[in-house]
C-alpha cells in the first residue's frame, strides 16, 4: 500500500518539521500523502481562529487546547486539503516530505511505560523467573507500569548508542562493566496526553477521549543484561533510560475510531475503576497492526488488539491515586506481543532469551549488533476500507563510546 | 538556634516568591535571615551582568548558566548583603519572609529517587521480604534508583491528599480498593541539576560540582499498602506518584563545603566509575542533620552522613549508560536512616511495619492519619562554626476524595 493511501484525509497526523532554508524554524506540520502541510501558514492563509496554536515550535499548545479545539482544527485541515474551493490555496503550503526534517513533535512531560500484553508478560516471566509463576499475582488486577526517563525520548532516526553498564553473567561472583551484550527493542504504542488534569483528581475510563490527543509508535530500547541485574527491587532504570524512540507523527485519536475493538476477555473481573465492560463503556481495544523490521527484514507482526489492558484503563489507573496529568505526558503500552511466536514484540521473546537466534539473510541475531537498524511501522483500519498509517519509528545502533 | 543564624551570609539559598500586591509575579528570592532578597531587583539596582538570569519566574535560567556563573552571582549577592558600601541599597529589596508566598522554585525535568541508606534498605528488606536476604545482591554494587513522577513534585505547604488505590491485605484473595491505610513519609535530600549533559555522554564523579546546582529537602510520601501490592516486578508507581514535597529553598552546593565528609567505608569495592576512594577524589558524604517532626513532635533525627552511596556516585551511575541530564533534573537520596532506631527516616521503619506504633502526646501512630502534619528540617555545619539551614518541607494530610 502506498504512503499516499496510508496518509489520506482520514488520517492527518501532526508533526514538527523544518525546511533546509530555515533549519532553526520548527513548524507544525500535517502529513498528507507524501507531503507535509505547513499548518500554521495554511491557518493564516485561511484566517483560522486557531492560527496561534498552529504557529508554534511544538505541538504542546495545540495539545493543551482540548478536544473541541482538536476537532475543530481537524475539520478545518480536512476542508483545506480536500474541498475544491480550498485545495489550490492549501497546496501553496505543502512541502514534499522528502525535503523536510522531522523533529520530536512535543515536549515530553512525564513518561510512563506499562506492561499490558499478557503474552509478553508471560514470556518474560518465564525467561527471567523460570522458577516462579510467569505472571505476578497483581498482573490481572492492575495495569503494571513504571515511570521512565522523559529526557531521553528521541525522535525516529536518532542514533542509539549502545549503553554501558553493569551486568552479572551467570557464574560470575561480581558484576562486570562494559557495553551491553543483550541490546533489545520493544515494539510499543505510545499515547500522548493533551488536556491536563488537576492534582488530587481522577480521570475515569469515560474521560479518555478528553485527555488523550493522539498516538505514536514507540521503541523502548532495552539493555536486558543491565536490566536483569538492576531491576530488583525498584524496577528498570539504566537498562531503559538511555533512549526511547518515537515516531515523528502523532495520529489523532479521532482518526482511529474505525480501529476500536473490544479488548480480549479478562479472566479476572477488574475493580470498578478499571471495568470497561459496564453498559455504555467505550471499547478502547485498538486494531493496530504492527510490523518490526530488522535491517529491512520483517521479524515480527504484533497485533495491538491482543493487549490485555487498554490505554483507557492505563490512564484511569495512572490517575486513581490523584496524580495530575500534564500536557505532554506520554504513556506507552508496553511491548506488544501476540499469541503466536511470530507476533512477539522484542528479541528477548523472539529468541527466547537469546537461546534460539533469528536466522536472517545477513546472519544470525540473538540481540542487536552495532550497525543494526530497527524499524517499527503500523497501520489501522480507517473508514470505508481506508487505512490509517501510523508512520514509522526507526533507529540504528551505534557502538558504545 | 534562630533562623537568622541558619540563613546567614554563608548560606544564601535560592527560592521563588510572590508578594501580596503582585500575586502573579514570581520572582527569584534569596533568603537572608528572616528576609527574602528580591534578587532580580537587587541585580538591576547594582547593574549586575546577571540581571536577566535573576529576573525570571523560575530558577531554571540561573541553574542552566553553569558553575562559574553560580559562583559569580553568589559572590555578588554576598557583597550586596554584607558590604557596608552596598547594604543600604540592598535593603530596599528585602521583604520580610512572613509577608511573602513561596513557590516551587524550579521546573522539574526528570525526577529520580535512589535507595542509598544501607540502614533503610536493610530494614525495609526485613519488613517487606522477611523470608529473603535483607539486601538484594546488587545493592552494594550500584546505587539502586528508579524514575518517579516529576509532575507531582510540589512545594512545601501543599496539602497531601490521601491516595486511593489497590491494596491486598494478608488473607484476602483479591485486592481491595480504597484510601491508603498505610500512608508514610520518607525523609530525603534532593539534588538539583543545573548544567545539562549531552545525550550519549557520561558525567564522572569528578564532574559532580559542575552539574549540581544545589540541595533541597524532600518528603517522598509513600502509600505502603499500595506500594507493596504493585511494586513487583517493575517497581513503585502509584504508591509514590501522588505527591513528593520539596523545601522552597535550594541551598547552593558551595554553601555545603564545610559539611563534606568521607562516606562510610564500603565493604564491597565499587567498580571504577563509582570508586570515590582513588587519589584526588572528592568526598561527597555530607554531614546534614535532619529532623522529622510529626504534629510538632520530633520523631526522628536521621544523619545524612551515614548514607552508603553519595550523590556524586548517584549522578555518575545515572549517566553511565549515556542518559543525558537536563536543567531541572531532580534526584533524591532515598530515605535517610541512621543505625539507631531513633534515626530512622520513615514510619515503616520507626514502627516496624506498623507493629510498634509511636507513642505521641496526642496519641498513637502506626501510619499517618488525616490532619497529621509532617515537617522535615535540616542544617549542616558551615564555615567557622556557623550553621547552614536547609529550611523545612512540610505537608498536612487531607482526607481522600
From TrEMBL, chains A, B:
Active site, UniProt feature: 120
Keywords: Calcium, Hydrolase, Magnesium, Metal-binding, Phenylalanine catabolism, Tyrosine catabolism
UniProt domain Fumarylacetoacetase-like C-terminal: residue ranges: 112-397
Highest taxon listed in the record's lineage: Bacteria
Name of this protein: fumarylacetoacetase
EC identifiers of the protein: 3.7.1.2
Gene Ontology MF annotations: fumarylacetoacetase activity; metal ion binding
Pathway participation: Amino-acid degradation; L-phenylalanine degradation; acetoacetate and fumarate from L-phenylalanine: step 6/6
Gene Ontology biological-process entries: homogentisate catabolic process; L-phenylalanine catabolic process; L-tyrosine catabolic process
A Pfam family matched in the record: FAA_hydrolase
Binding site for Ca(2+): 113, 186, 188, 220
Leading EC class: hydrolase
Classification via InterPro entries: Fumarylacetoacetase, Fumarylacetoacetase-like_C, Fumarylacetoacetase_C_sf, Fumarylacetoacetase_N, Fumarylacetoacetase_N_sf
Occurrences of domain Fumarylacetoacetase N-terminal (ranges): 11-105
Leader sequence residues: none
Cofactor: Ca(2+); Mg(2+)
Residues holding Mg(2+): 220, 240, 244
Binding positions for substrate per the UniProt entry: 115, 129, 227, 231, 335
Organism annotation: Streptomyces cacaoi
